[in-house]
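Worked example (supplementary).
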Amino acid sequence: MSGVTINNVKKAYGGFEILHGIDAEIQDGEFVVLVGPSGCGKSTLLRMIAGLEGVTSGTIAIGDRVINEVHAKDRDIAMVFQNYALYPHMTVEQNMGFSLKLAGRKAPAIRTSVEQVAGFLGLSPLLRRYPRQLSGGQRQRVAMGRALVRNPKVFLFDEPLSNLDAKLRVQMRSEIKSLHRQFPTTAVYVTHDQVEAMTLADRIIVMCGGRIEQVGTPGELYEQPANLFVAGFIGSPAMNFLPGELADDMRSVLLGEQRVSVKAPGHAKPRQRVTVGFRPERIRFCDSGGIHFKVADVEFTGANSYVIGHIGREQICASVNGRTHVKAGQSASIAIDPASIHLFDTTTGKALV
Amino acid sequence: MFIIVLGVTGYPLLQSIWLSFHSRPLAGHDVQAEWVGLANFKTVLENAAFRAAVARTLYFTIVSVLAEAMIGVMVALLLDQEFRGRAFVRALLVLPLAMPTVVSAMMWRLIYNPEYGAFNALLLQIGLIDNYQSWLGTPGLAMNMVIVAEVWKNFSIVAIIVLAALQTIPRELYEAATIDSAGPWARFRNVTWPGILAPLSVALVLRTIEAFKVFDIFYVMTRGGPANTTKTATFFVYDESFAFLRAGSAASYALVVVAISMVLIAIYVRLLRRQDQP
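After joint prediction of all chains, the assembly is encoded as:
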């Protein structure tokens, strides 16, 4: 087992740079999720670690060994693909044992390893089947089994759950998590789904436009987003943003006509343009004296209700537990705890902390 | 519809079967068919020249289909790579197919011409031969030279089918194999080959059936010569009927050729059915 060290890695296709110097340190045994919108370069980075894409500049190391020039087959990694990539003409058993067979292991030894992993994943009754005879979830499991059998230094996952239906996705997510608890091998997992990232990761690397926006535990990203992008990307429903201006006393922000208490850091300037962020689940409805909130719609989802409305011209979403007495069309008053308000510099997008 | 099909294919077939049990000259005064029973088939099976023709046809079929398979697969693999002008080269592939066999056979006859053929000129200029050869006039050589022409004409159908199959193989499979430590050969063996095997086998069986019925290319290039060394089974039927004017026994020869073709078709059908199963 070993960690992965990514040092100022860039990737360009014919002069067009899509990764602009990525630095990341993935600890031995850590489960790190690369998350970001489509085209942010997360999959490319994963494929560079896998050896399926070349590194334009910078270095990638697994353990102490720089692997830029090491062929994919010699990197001792295993990868789970989005479309499973099972060999269609091979049985489940042959699929799982393929890498061992190529490595020159003897048939009885391969069988033992495959049966052990299959038993663990509940695949034992399916070993003689072909991929086309399996359901999506079973195929996904075989793909993971194929990776597990190799006992690699690093596991790589490329959006492995995106082809499953919602229910199965939640189930496989927790299975991956418990698998990692039992085989604490370094894992790098790519997804565009921030819920998947939050639930699986020891640490999350948020990427956008070929750059790292923030690295941290799910808690850190949620509590202390470093910038507007991360604040808006992590959490569902997304964080609300309002344009505002720091008051002279530095203790409040002017949102148009209304004044909201905040805690501004010492280096902020009075009258500075700021973006005020607050999470839908941190909004409380109060009887009076709060911020004026015009309710446009109420969405009841079962466990929660989302109240969508406007403060001034800006659309805001509030999340409350269970049902709410608030009705569409009414005017309400909301309060936000100053401690849960995030301030961002409007020009740079960086958090003011 | 049924009646049309029956009229177009059924009547000639039944007529052939009827003929095969009779002795009947194709032309002449007072042509009367005379019942001879199985005598025609006896002649066919006892005829060493016909057996030799069948053996020759099998040689032609096996060698040309194998060569088409190998060249076809290799060309398809090349054309599956990215390179400049790939679309143009892929379009070129259709050229031999688009050409009528008679035309391509004529072309190859010119190329092989013993006095002014391009093939002789080429080999002489690069120093492989000292004198012009009569490629189609030398027994033993002529058959193989016709096979070259046949392969040129037909390898592209194999290449086109395999190329189409190659494009259906997901790229992820190659990547998974790479990560499973498969080298180029192992990737070909475990990803490419299983991916093209089914369409390739269908193409080859169809080519085999076609090749066994070969007639036109030999008719144009060699007329069965020299010394009958390129006289194939169908050519034999043709000679029996239109050179020796023996319609009865020609029909029996034809039916034997049909029987052999049917064995090939049975293999083809079985292969198709096996592909339907998991």
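Two points are worth noting when inspecting this output. Residues 21 and 39 of chain B are 7 Å apart (CA to CA). The mean pLDDT of chain B is 87.
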